[in-house]
Amino acid sequence: MLSKNILVDSSVIGTVKFYAYVFNDESGRVGFGLFPNDGPEPIVYLLNVQGSRIKIFFNERIILLICQQSRFSTNERRNFFREFLDFATSMEKKAARLVFRDNKMIYMADTREMIKYKRLYIHYKIPVSSKDDMKAVRN
Predict the structure, then answer these.
(1) How far, in Å, CA of 109 to CA of 1, rounded?
(2) Cα separation, 126 vs 103, whole angstroms
(3) Which of 8, 28, 83, 110 might form a disulfide with 20, Cβ 3.0–4.6 angstroms?
(4) Bridge partner residues of 104 (DSSP)
(5) Distance of alpha carbon 9 from alpha carbon 21, whole angstroms
(6) How far is CA 53 from the centre of its chain?
């Protein structure tokens, strides 16, 4: 279980309020993450994994949940993603100053995963998965 220690900032983007926290993970390592709607798990977080190397992690389950619940148009999603990335980048800079001084950081905007999740969010379509759903689509 994560222990949220210091609230750094928050921002409402679309229908989700993201909270930026300095936290401790189950092993006591210090991390920095963005928690949607002040939930128990971050959607994205930075963690000192080895020595002075900071790694970025994405919670794909939460990302998919946000994609599935979003009812916005593609253009609205594009704007929300831009707002999210601006907020996340600003929070990463704060994390670098507050928590991870003198450490080598990998930034979200520089990762391939960010491009993958951007495309997923902006162009997400609800999958048709069951036979009943298929019947409803045909009728």
Answers:
(1) 27
(2) 40
(3) 8
(4) 53
(5) 8
(6) 20
Tell me the per-residue pLDDT of 108-120, one tens digit each, with 9 for 90 and over.
777 889 999 999 9
Q: Are 45 and 57 in contact (CB under 8 A)?
A: yes
Report the first-to-last Cα separation within the chain, whole angstroms: 46
- The pLDDT, as a whole number, for residue 105 is 82
The distance of Cα 55 from the centroid of its chain, to the nearest Å, equals 14
Give the count of beta carbons closer than 10 Å to the beta carbon of residue 92: 23
HSE-up (13 A, CA, CB side) for residue 35: 20
According to DSSP, the β-strands at 53-58 and 30-36 are: unpaired
Span 15-24, pLDDT tens digits? 999 999 999 9
Which residues face 22 on adjacent strands? 6, 32
> Cβ neighbours of residue 68 under 8 Å, at least 6 residues apart?
124, 126
